[in-house]
Amino acid sequence: MNLGTDFLKLGTDELKDLYHELQREYNEYKNQNLKLDMSRGKPCPEQLELSMEMLDILKSDDQIKAMDGIDCRNYGGVDGIHEAKELFSQMLGVSTKEIIIGGNSSLNMMYDALSRAMLFGVSEGEMPWGKLPKVKFLCPSPGYDRHFAICELLNIEMITIDMNQDGPDMDTIERLVSDDDSIKGIWCVPKYSNPDGITYSDKIVDRLACMKTKARDFRIFWDDAYTVHHLTDKPDQLKNILAACKTAGYPNRVYMFSSTSKITFPGSGVAMIASSEENVNFIKKQLGIQTIGPDKINQLRHVRFLRSLDNLNVHMKKQAAIIKPKFDLVLHQLEVDLGGKNIAEWNKPNGGYFISLNTLDGCANEVVNMAAQIGVTLTNAGATYPYGKDPRDRNIRIAPTFPSIKELELAIKVLCVCVQLISIKKILAGGI
Fold it and tell me: Rounded CA gap, 174 and 165, in Å?
């Protein structure tokens, strides 16, 4: 049988023979007592080694003052040190007056921003969202499970929005926000999206920036986590959302988030939020109550290690050299084992941390469970949708970065066997 034989064109006997052949392969893997994990997008040890020099950047006899005179060992600087603002404002394409540098986690800053909106509203004079009878958020999906978990914890109703190849379904978004003032925001991972690896087109960015919303205090939560995480020498280009919002007359509409979590050390990176000066000043007033200042020594360490945007980009090319072979391996194996069989499809991202695999409808959960039974751990099926409910039960997020090449090759082969087995069961049961 040809590698690319369309399963939907095979007869019942052919499918049964193939099923028994694949089952034997599955049992062979089962006997190996595997323990492989592709569930989270973590940097591998080799990536972390690239930043070890940063731990030696500051010595006890060094000058620990920032360029504006702040003693980084002491309290103060609630919005971060100036040189960190200079570096990371360039990375995000904003001014130093439009950015706040925080602690190690952009997810923490997103959680705080949404929590503050619930407690205090998002600008002077607006009602705190938590006092409203209902708050809703738009969630382009498949998307980032931790975004959805924040909404679920804060009792914010989530509305699933389909993702297209150029970004979220704007026709649906524009219709919904124009008619419902309880829709207060949208989650976006606009560049190399989690998990599809899609970068929003200029047209999508402009439509988000200029759309008419019934809620005056509508906010775009723009999680630009992968802004410099390219896998090719011809990276995707993302239009600047803050500039687009200013041009459209809605300068306060967007909160941009990013971090160095996958640039240096995930556990001790530097996170940031960028927005209009008005929004930044409003947030700083609240931060002044919440904290007496972030870890400025860590900010200083990052600036002295990364030095400039050009040097940061050189560092990211070293990162890409480590993880691109892993992406290439996964994509190659998917093509070899699943290509042409009409049972799965996947994107080929130019950056980011994930590959998104879609099975036949109704198969993803069984595939993930079947792989887990022999020691291959994947992100839970449905995790990439609000409330953990993939309406078509087909999306599986693959995280290639952490395993070794050898482990990854084995894990993907197991996954492909499981996809084929469950697909055949689905076809034979008449579910297609």
Answer: 18
Overall size of the chain counted in residues: 432
Determine if residue 144 is left, alpha or beta; phi over 0 gives left, psi from -120 to 50 gives alpha, anything else beta.
beta
ω into 391 cis (within 30 of 0) = no
In tens, the pLDDT along 71-125 reads: 999 999 999 999 999 999 999 999 999 999 999 999 999 999 999 999 999 987 7
Cα–Cα distance measured from residue 21 to residue 12, given in angstroms and rounded to the nearest whole number: 14
Query: CB 336: neighbour CB atoms within 10 A?
Result: 13
What are 196's two structure tokens? 């599809």
Q: What is the 3-state composition of the chain as percent helix, strand, coil, each rounded to the nearest 5?
A: 45, 15, 40
Q: How far apart are CA 53 and CA 33, in angstroms?
A: 38
Among residues 335, 410, 388, the alpha carbon closest in space to that of 144 is found at: 388
Closest CA to 129 of 38, 249, 215: 215
pTM of the model: 0.95
Residues in CB range of 262: below 8 A, 6 or more apart:
41, 43, 47, 225, 226, 229, 319, 353
How does pLDDT run across 36-80, given as a tens digit for each residue? 999 989 999 999 999 999 999 998 877 788 888 889 999 999 999
Strand partners, 220: 186, 254
384 and 141 Cβ atoms separated by less than 8 Å: yes
> Does a cis peptide bond (omega within 30 degrees of 0) precede residue 235?
no
Helix axes 309-338, 405-428, angle to 10 degrees: 40
